[in-house]
Amino acid sequence: MNTSSSASSVSSTTSTTTSSTSSTGTGARTEQAATLIGGARERIDALDDRIIGLVQERMAVSAAIQDARITSGGRRVHLSREMEILGRYREALGKPGTALAMTLLELGRGRI
């Protein structure tokens, strides 16, 4: 077998594998869908970064509120306020919203 023919065959196999892998990595069956999914995943990653930053900011604000409440002689947790937050998330996002709100409240209490 001649060397250029062998190299061409390997190159062809590699590009087919790469093409197939990029589609398979997204679960898509076409390159067009894989490209769309790849771009959408990048957007989701950017949104997740923003959400994480907002959650961290929320935790800091919650800590400041708790410090002020405790310093003034109050309790660390204000249950009626937490119930408001749970209701707000449930109304906006349904049952999963309640779970999300519970997680945010737990993070805000400083319990990770």
Molecular structure report:
The chain has 112 residues and is mostly helical. The longest helix is centred in the middle third of the chain and has 41 residues, at 31-71. The protein is elongated and about 60 Å long. It is 84% helix and 0% strand. Mean pLDDT is 85; it is low at 6-22. It starts with a helix and ends with a helix. It is built from 4 helices and no strands. 4% of the residues are buried. Helix 1 (3-26) crosses helix 2 (31-71) and helix 3 (79-93) packs antiparallel against helix 4.
Any key phrases for this structure?
elongated; 112 residues; 84% helix; mainly alpha; 4 helices
Sheet bearing the most strands, described?
none
Q: Give the termini distance in whole angstroms.
A: 63 Å
Tell me what portion of residues adopts beta-strand conformation.
under 5%
Radius of gyration: 25 Å
Oligomer: single chain
Principal-axes shape call: elongated
pLDDT < 50 runs, ≥5 residues: 6-22
Q: Give the strand tally.
A: 0
The total of helices stands at 4
- Helix fraction by DSSP (H/I, runs of at least 4): over 70%
Order of H and E elements: HHHH
Mean pLDDT across all amino acids: 85
Give the class from helix and strand content and strand pairing.
mainly alpha
What is the fold's blueprint, element by element?
Elements: H1 3-26, H2 31-71, H3 79-93, H4 95-108
Helix pairs in contact: 1-2, 3-4
Write a brief caption for the model.
With about 110 residues, the chain is mainly α.
